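Q: what sequence does this backbone want?
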């Protein structure tokens, strides 16, 4: 993929113009990417994001198979953030590119069936149980596909290179009282740590020599939240397994390997 004249180009990119937009970004103002989920499939989401009565839009919509629909050029302000605030800036539409990712969001379970808010049922392999960063109790969430995560990653890199983006945030972080997207199923911290390394260190309370670790115990539980009562994310980590440390809370590290979760910090050796 590449960006030409503020438009994404590539074999899996389409363009569908939205009437919902403001003018160009003020010079020097564009410095942020805001990630969202659509809370529904592509078709209805595009219908909403291009409906003049709804007054909502975004720059891009990324489908489950990695197909991207661009709704407005990147130099134009779209309407995805609403009432929002980040690092002293208020109303992030004026400063950000909005990327919607097709995902059903939180799910409810009855018996063995997981359901989205609009009634669709999901199979278990498309569901994770995880605790949202703004909540304390785990819920069920629709997973993102590998294609989506790879495409979003690539697009963010292109936008950083083209527009000098310095912040990648979730809607849930700039409007935490109202919004839950993209939610815990999206590897938000991993992506921004990788793409913006350095920029987030302050926020995560980490310095450089805290980033790589190794499991010291013969077996180490990895959990959804920094608590011994929190549910386990996957099977235990094994001795000498290498991890990346993303965040520290008291006696706990949030780490990533093939899986992401919280482990007791005392069983991790720093490298
Ligand atoms: Zn959103």
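A:
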């Amino acid at each position: 993929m590449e960006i030409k004249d503020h438009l994404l180009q590539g074999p899996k990119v389409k363009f569908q113009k939205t009437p919902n937009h403001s003018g160009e970004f003020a010079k020097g103002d564009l410095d942020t990417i805001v990630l969202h989920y659509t809370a529904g499939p592509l078709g209805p989401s595009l219908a909403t994001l291009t409906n003049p009565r709804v007054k909502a839009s975004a720059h891009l919509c990324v489908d489950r198979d990695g197909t991207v629909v661009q709704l407005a050029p990147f130099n134009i302000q779209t309407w995805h953030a609403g009432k929002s605030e980040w690092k002293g800036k208020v109303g992030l539409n004026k400063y950000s590119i909005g990327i919607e990712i097709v995902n059903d969001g939180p799910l409810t379970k009855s018996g063995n069936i997981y359901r989205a808010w609009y009634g669709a049922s999901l199979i278990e392999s498309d569901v994770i149980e995880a605790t949202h960063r703004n909540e304390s109790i785990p819920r069920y969430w629709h997973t993102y596909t590998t294609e989506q995560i790879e495409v979003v990653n690539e697009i963010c890199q292109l936008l950083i290179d083209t527009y000098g983006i310095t912040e990648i945030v979730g809607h849930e972080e700039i409007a935490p009282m109202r919004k839950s997207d993209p939610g815990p199923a999206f590897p938000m911290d991993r992506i921004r740590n990788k793409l913006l390394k350095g920029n987030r260190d302050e926020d995560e309370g980490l310095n450089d020599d805290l980033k790589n670790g190794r499991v010291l115990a013969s077996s180490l539980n990895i959990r959804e939240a920094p608590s011994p009562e929190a549910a386990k994310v996957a099977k235990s980590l094994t001795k000498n397994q290498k991890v990346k440390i993303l965040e520290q809370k008291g006696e706990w590290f949030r780490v990533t390997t093939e899986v992401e979760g919280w482990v007791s910090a005392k069983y991790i050796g720093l490298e």
